[in-house]
Amino acid sequence: MKTYSVKELLSEGKTQQDVVVKGWVRTFRSNRFIALNDGSTINNIQCVIDFENTDEEVLKKITTSAAIEVKGTLVASQGSGQAVEIQAQTITILGASNPEEYPIQPKKHSLEFLRANAHLRVRTNTFSAVMRVRSALSFAVHKFFQEDGFYYVNTPIITGSDAEGAGEMFRVSALDAKNPPLTEEGNIDYAEDFFGKETNLTVSGQLEAETYAMGLGKVYTFGPTFRAENSNTTRHLAEFWMIEPEVAFMDLDGNMDLAERFIKSVLGYVKEHCADDLAFLEQRLLNEEKTKPQNERSPMPLREKIDFILDNNFKRVSYTEAIEILRNSKPNKKKKFDYIIEDWGADLQSEHERYLVEKHFECPVILFDYPAKIKAFYMRLNDDGKTVRAMDILFPGIGEIVGGAQREERYEVLVDKMKTMGIDEEELYWYLDLRKFGTAVHSGFGLGFERLVLFATGMTNIRDVIPFPRTPKNAEF
Ligand code: ATP
Ligand code: MG
Ligand code: MG
Ligand code: MG
């Protein structure tokens, strides 16, 4: 007898055939109907057991989350749910699960409660759906770039340069924790840190990706990045995955085109390949909406939101125009955006970004040409001498999803900029070399993978779209 996944049985299983399936019990009703799930799909297969001929000991152990093997015949289903079900002949308990102790009951738990059970939450419909969508998105990322002529580059996780994220990096230490080298005063000698050099966990692979773009042409990284930000928001993690393409001979307009094409492509892939999971997640959200007061309900169901992105052009707006809009906006009358009116150079706060995306334009927005002062040293200076070729993509419900730029390719200008911003030229000699030997216009962006998963799944807290979230005081396992 052949073993099948639940997904295979439900989508292409031939009736009247003997099958084996293994999974975890979701529910067991009336001593007869087991809803079995093996993680391959959101859907369960119903197994109808022969109560009379099933051992009493086995019956007792068919409880929620027990791992079982079912042997039986696939038949057309009598009930309304699925097209097929299994007429079970033998049930084998592979791993019992004591219902008195199992923390996750079939009743609906809060997401907070499930977060505290991060090792078991994938047994729930919501998390298994999110994780399947995450996996599909991650495949779609590689598919898009590979089919578009990009090469995948692995940039280092441990890095000696701290040029970009000064202050928000995690330090890496190779010291023997039990027996660290000590200074004469008896303190730990961090000068000996990483075999004599101070190193950190990467906050972005961009500078290294640029190096490879200036030789391979079109490259992307897709790996973990780390930021020691002690912020407890629903959009920040201390460890998150970032997608960073970098392309030689591409300017900022090309960068915007690439980012828009990329986002549409991966969301289109998920729409096509995760239909059941998206339908489930959408229903979950609709049920949640019903518990809210009428005026707080979100008007657009999840799949329509995705379609909206696929069908509409992102609105491109310069920072200066955005400031104008904010100045003339209603909330301004309530003095909410006051400090921006006084200061053209201010960075936008998330409430400004959300106003632009959700109230003013009502579609994704690409903001570009930011004041040089609020952006990193490597961004291409415009002829006005005060703005840089930076772009941020803002998404409804999420805020910033992408940060990118055309890079400063002119050696002299870059050195000047580094001097005024106090960036160590010696440490970044390799970065400057790219401008000395065959420099070229080039651009790229960074997209936070979890923010993309948030959008695609309709989840609202970033802790719920990564298997093991790392946030302040949360890194037990
Ligand atoms: P934010 O303004 O939201 O803090 P940022 O401007 O600091 O983001 P960038 O340095 O531009 O972030 O990084 C590129 C992208 O990485 C962001 O647009 C976002 O999608 C994602 N990102 C940044 N920080 C985090 C984080 N702590 N957790 C998850 N994703 C993040
Ligand atoms: Mg940040
Ligand atoms: Mg930002
Ligand atoms: Mg940014």
Automatic annotation (TrEMBL):
Give the record's family classification. Answer: Belongs to the class-II aminoacyl-tRNA synthetase family.
Q: Which CDD domains match?
A: AsxRS_core (cd00776), EcAsnRS_like_N (cd04318)
Annotated GO molecular function terms are: ligase activity
Q: Which Pfam families does the protein's record reference? A: tRNA-synt_2, tRNA_anti-codon
Q: What is its main location?
A: cytoplasm
Places the protein is found: Cytoplasm
Q: Which gene is transcribed and translated to give this protein?
A: asnS
Q: What is its EC number?
A: 6.1.1.22
Domain of life of the organism encoding this protein: Bacteria
> Record's InterPro entries?
Aa-tRNA-synt_II (IPR004364), aa-tRNA-synth_II (IPR006195), aa-tRNA-synth_II/BPL/LPL (IPR045864), Asn-tRNA-ligase (IPR004522), Asp/Asn-tRNA-synth_IIb (IPR002312), NA-bd_OB-fold (IPR012340), NA-bd_OB_tRNA (IPR004365)
Which positions fall inside the Aminoacyl-transfer RNA synthetases class-II family profile domain?
A: 131-467
Instruction: Describe the reaction catalysed, as an equation.
Output: tRNA(Asn) + L-asparagine + ATP = L-asparaginyl-tRNA(Asn) + AMP + diphosphate + H(+)
Subunit organization: Homodimer.
Keywords of the record, alphabetical order, are: Aminoacyl-tRNA synthetase, ATP-binding, Cytoplasm, Ligase, Nucleotide-binding, Protein biosynthesis
Name of the top EC class for this enzyme: ligase
- NCBIfam families, alphabetized: asnS, PRK03932.1
Provide the species name: Neptunitalea lumnitzerae
Name used for this protein in its record: Asparagine--tRNA ligase
**Gene3D superfamilies, per database record:** Bira Bifunctional Protein, Domain 2, Nucleic acid-binding proteins
